[in-house]
Amino acid sequence: MNITTLEIAGKKLSVNAEFNPVMHLSGKNIFRYEVLAKIYNAKDRWLPVEQSFDILERETIKAVSDFLFETVCELLKMKEGITVSFKLPAQLMNDMAYLASLYQRCGHHHIAPQRIEIEIGKWLTDTPHRDCQAFLEQARTYGFMLLLDNFGSLDESADSLRLFRFDTIKLARTLIYGIATSPAKLSTLHNLIDKVIPPGTHVICEGVERSSDLALLSRYSHIGIEGYIFSRPLTFSQLRLLEGF
Fold it and tell me: What whole-number distance in Å separates Cα of residue 51 and Cα of residue 154?
C-alpha cells in the first residue's frame, strides 16, 4: 500500500509514501500527519519531488497523486481521530474533474473529507485570485480542509489569507530555523502569528530542529510543530508501530 512502481519512457520509478508527524506543542502529542512522496530511480537514487514533477508527464503526476491519496484513505480507515494533509501538485490545481474524483474516492472508502487537508503551495502566488478562489471554494464545498504551505517564504499577503480562509497555515522552515539566533526572524514570526494570520487559523511551524528554537516557540501553546527535533519522516511500518494498529 505504501510503495508503488511507475514506468516512464521505459524507465521504472519507485514511489514510497512517508509520513511527517505533527506534534501539538501544548500536549506533546501527535495530532496529524503529512503524507510525502519519495521517488527513487532504478538505481535507488532519491529524486526531489518538485524536480520530478517539473519533468514528469501530467498522467504520471496524476498517478503519483492517486497513489498518495489512496494511502491517505487507507491510513484514515485504520486510525480514527487524526487528520492527514495531502499536497496536491500544482499541475493538478484548477482541475475540477480531478478534485471531484478525490471527493468520490472519499465516498468509496467511507472517509469524511473533513479529515483530509489539501496543501496549497506556490501555485497560489502564480495563479490569478479568481481562479484560485473557484477551485478552493469547490474543495471546501466538498468538505476538504485547506492548508497553505511554506508561508513566510513567498509573496502572500494578509488580504489573500482572509480571502481564501485557510484552515491551517504552515510557516516555512526558512523562517523557523535559527530564530533563537536571529532577532529579525523572531520578530517576523511574532508579527505573523500575532497580527497577520487570521484568528482561529491553525498554525504549524515546520523545520524545527534545535531545542533553542523550540524554547522560543513555547509561548504559543496552541501551535503545531513539525521537524527533526521530534521525528524524521516515518515509513508506513514505522507509523503503524508508533500508533499501535
Answer: 18
Q: Which parts of 43-182 fold into alpha helices (H)?
A: 49-55, 58-78, 96-109, 123-126, 129-142, 158-164, 173-176
How many domains does the chain fold into?
1
Rounded Cα–Cα distance for residues 235 and 76 (Å)? 15
Question: For position 216, which CATH number holds?
Answer: 3.20.20.450
Cell of residue 171, nine digits: 510557516
Positive or negative torsion for Cα 106, 107, 113, 118? positive
3-state class (DSSP) for residue 147: strand
Q: pLDDT digits over 183-236, tens only?
A: 999 999 998 898 889 888 999 999 899 999 999 998 888 899 999 998 889 988
What is the three-class DSSP state of 26? coil
Range of the domain at 112: 3-243
H or E element in which residue 11 lies: strand 11-24
Query: 46-47 and 83-87 as β-strands: parallel, antiparallel, unpaired?
Result: unpaired
User: Can you read off the three cell numbers belonging to residue 227?
Assistant: 521537524
